[in-house]
Amino acid sequence: MGSGKYGALSGVISRMQMLDNINSNLANVNTTGYKKGVAVFETQLNEAAATRGGQATNFTRINREAIDFSQGQLNKSGNPLHLAISGEGFFRVQTEEGDMVYARRGNFQLNQDGEMITSSGAKLLDDGDSPIIIPPGDVSITPTGGIRVENQLVGTVPLYDFEDTNLLTRGNDGVFIAPEDAVVTKSPKPEMLQGYLEGSNVNIMQETARMVYNTRVFEAGQKVLTSYGNMDSKLAELGGLQ
């Protein structure tokens, strides 16, 4: 197979991966706190480029998926246990397996022990990394995270910032996993809204336009591969006549 055919094939595969990325974003357009994925392309130059006489060919591939942590729209829910982060920051939660992970999705509820948990059962942690327990009564949460029940302070919801959010990877139920070497600090000026939820940051119009463009590039790559296949067949026929 010629190097040009390899280049076209790598382009087709990359566009298939890009379309998978777009489909995932569109499927989560209404998911609370969802952060869209952005496919990161990487171009590899054939080693022949190292020599003047070599014929270099560019190959394209998806290197990784970056996560766009830009703010989603804040929507009023009216539920006093719902929290939306305004600006940067993450909640710290503990999964049922005991792992500490981070979340932007603030659709919390209470379990039978009065602990604030996510829909998958992960516990929201206070500034001492203990589960937040809400006693019976009217709950009010200040923009800086102070929790009051019947006007008595019962806990605090802290937010956390990362020096490099590119280190975060996706986990289950909308959480994000930080590697051990990630630099994380407590937000000095947390800002959250009680009774609101952050929506997805997926823009339907932008993703649809990306889908149309990548579909056309994918189809063009298929035509190139077909042309190379026809050329190979003709060359085989010519070789058979000798």
Topology:
Layout: H1 3-27, E1 37-45, E2 58-67, E3 74-76, E4 83-85, E5 91-94, E6 100-103, E7 109-110, E8 116-117, E9 123-124, E10 139-141, E11 146-149, E12 152-156, E13 160-162, E14 169-170, E15 175-177, E16 184-186, E17 192-194, E18 196-198, H2 204-241
Antiparallel strand pairs: 1-2, 3-18, 4-17, 5-6, 5-9, 6-15, 7-8, 10-11, 11-12, 13-16, 14-15
Short characterization:
This protein has 242 residues and is α+β, with helices and mostly antiparallel strands. The protein has 2 domains: 3-70 and 202-241, no CATH class; 74-198, no CATH class.
What structural keywords apply?
242 residues; five-stranded antiparallel beta sheet; alpha+beta; 2 helices
Describe it.
This protein is an alpha+beta fold and 242 residues long. The protein has two domains: 108 residues, no CATH class; 125 residues, no CATH class. 26% of the residues lie in helices and 28% in strands. It has two helices and 18 strands. The chain has a five-stranded antiparallel β-sheet with strand order 9-5-6-15-14, with no helix packed on it. Strands 10-11-12 form a three-stranded antiparallel β-sheet, with no helix packed on it. The chain has a two-stranded antiparallel ribbon with strand order 1-2. Helix 1 packs antiparallel against helix 2. The radius of gyration is 25 Å and the shape is elongated. About 5% of the residues have low confidence.
What Rg is obtained from the alpha carbons, in whole angstroms? 25 Å
Helical stretch tally: 2
Structurally, the number of domains stands at 2
Distance between the termini: 21 Å
Give average pLDDT, whole number: 84
Number of strands: 18
Helix content range: 25-40%
The run of helices and strands is HEEEEEEEEEEEEEEEEEEH
Structural class: alpha+beta
**Proportion of residues in extended strands:** 25-35%
Shape: elongated
Low-confidence stretches are: 44-56
Largest sheet: 5 strands, antiparallel
Q: In order across it, which strands form the biggest sheet?
A: 9-5-6-15-14
